[in-house]
Amino acid sequence: MRPLTEDETRTFFEKLSKYIGENIRLLIDRPDGTYCFRLHKDRVYYVSEHIMKRAANVSRENLISMGTCFGKFTKTGKFRLHITALDFLAPYAKYKIWVKPGAEQTFLYGNHVLKSGLGRITESTNQYQGVVVYSMGDIPLGFGVAAKSTQECRRTDPMSIVCFHQADIGEYIRGEDTLT
Fold first, then answer.
1. At residue 178, does pLDDT exceed 70?
2. Of 6, 45, 98, 114, which has the fewest Cβ atoms less than 10 A away?
3. Tens of pLDDT, residues 133-161
4. Mean per-residue pLDDT for 82-102?
5. Predicted confidence band at 179 (pLDDT cuts at 50, 70, 90)?
6. Are 139 and 131 in contact (CB under 8 A)?
7. Does 39 score more than 60 pLDDT?
8. Strand spans (E) along the chain
9. Which segments of 43-125 are extended strands (E)?
10. What is the mean pLDDT of the chain?
11. pLDDT value at position 52?
């Protein structure tokens, strides 16, 4: 368990800023305490300083995880967000997509969102912008990348992809043996 290096921090914050923008500071400076990001076995954890100090007493080999896993660094140095970060990304998301009830299940099975399943989209969403996907009842289902801008979504055909799937809450069931 160690703090992120400068390069790791830059890569990690660039990925987070695609989804929540400048609201990253709201994750660190919270009214209920100070939180930080720590790296352990190529995974980035979001943990309170109180828990971090207690975890320092456990050896690295025996420490499985601490706090909430936000994602992991790949072997090439890129950062990949995990679905476990959804609860922290959703309240601060700048760009959102709501899917119709019929399209929820297809998204939760790991498929992209089609125009026919799109309920609403945040105004001024750019192409390839990170978005949080919600059900029509405002329940966060996952996150992805906008395949088309808001303007393009209005005039595209119903079978075209409007959001590329990245992660969804169905991963808890599909990958429960590998998700830590």
1. no
2. 6
3. 999 999 999 999 999 999 998 999 999 99
4. 92
5. low
6. no
7. yes
8. 2-3, 29-30, 33-40, 43-48, 68-73, 79-81, 96-99, 113-114, 118-121, 130-135, 140-146, 161-168
9. 43-48, 68-73, 79-81, 96-99, 113-114, 118-121
10. 89
11. 85
Distance, CA of 135 to CA of 128 (rounded, Å): 21
Find the helix or strand (DSSP H, E) in which 172 lies. Answer: helix 171-174
Give the contacts of 129 (CB within 8 A, at least 6 positions apart).
18, 95, 145, 146
Task: Label residues 85-104 b or e (16+ Cβ within 10 Å = b).
Answer: bbebbbebbbbbbbbeeebb
* H or E stretch at 14: helix 6-20
CA distance 165 to 147: 10
Mean pLDDT of 13-24: 90
Greatest C-alpha distance within the chain? 58
Q: What is the pLDDT of residues 93-122, one digit of tens each?
A: 999 999 999 999 999 999 999 999 999 999
> Residue 102 has which token pair?
């019929």
What type of residue sits at position 83? I
Single out the residue of 128, 139, 39 nearest to residue 86, CA to CA.
139
Concatenating the DSSP letter of every residue in 126-147 gives PTT-EEEEEETTS-EEEEEEES
